[in-house]
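Take a minute with the sequence and fold tokens given here and flag any structure token that looks odd. Thanks in advance.
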Amino acid sequence: MAQRYVRIQTTAGKLHYGLLQLDRQVQVLDAPPWLSGQPTDEILPAHDYFLLAPCAPSKIVAVGKNYLKHAIEMGGAVPQEPLLFFKPSTSVIAADTSIQYPPQTSRVDYEGELALVIGDRCFECTPEQAQTKIWGYTIANDVTARDLQRKDSQWTRAKGFDTFCPLGPWIVREISAAARLQTFLNDNPTPVQSALINEMAFSPEVLVSYISQVMTLLPGDVVLTGTPEGVGEVQVGDRIRIEIEGIGCLENSVAARKTAEVPVS
């Protein structure tokens, strides 16, 4: 099994990066792994930590309509160049935490995706150089308020709600180009999404190179590579499970958005 790099919070509140062992113990690293973090002698048992999203990106750059069949189901074609948008860092949540359904929308969709984790500063890179800047791979759910996406004619609000970017549960260093991405809803054994990641119109290294012509990607930043066909609606109480061969499984439930507490004056 490939090494699984995690980000955790101990029951005492300390944050660490680490290596997840088969018995769920975590060997703590002395720095983020893409910043040359090395294993320490500290081993945390499973009951002494909580799993967080595997990185804390300064930005999440996402790509729309990067699979032909998904572009068709959305009523268009694959763009001539990658179609970029942002998701804020505040949208990131870990596996096994709840996606909160906002009151501003009446249509929330799942979108299972392969996510790239950047390991080195990347600016104006060729695709060959960009490949060396991709430190690892994880799973993402590009949750979308579909009605707001159509209403606004741009995607910031629809893609940017808190909890709208489940990420994890860990990072692996390598993945097969023929790995299959599948999304499952609740207990239905039939996937609602199923595609090979090499069906992307623009490959990971091309995406990273293209983005780097516009902005600098920093270590720990995340690139979402697009979703295949089969996106669909979720309701409060649903569970979404996204699997990618060679990585694992990202699962999150959907809950009604919590009302913010009003400060007492």
Notes: The chain has five helices and 20 strands. The chain has two domains: 4-51, 60-256.
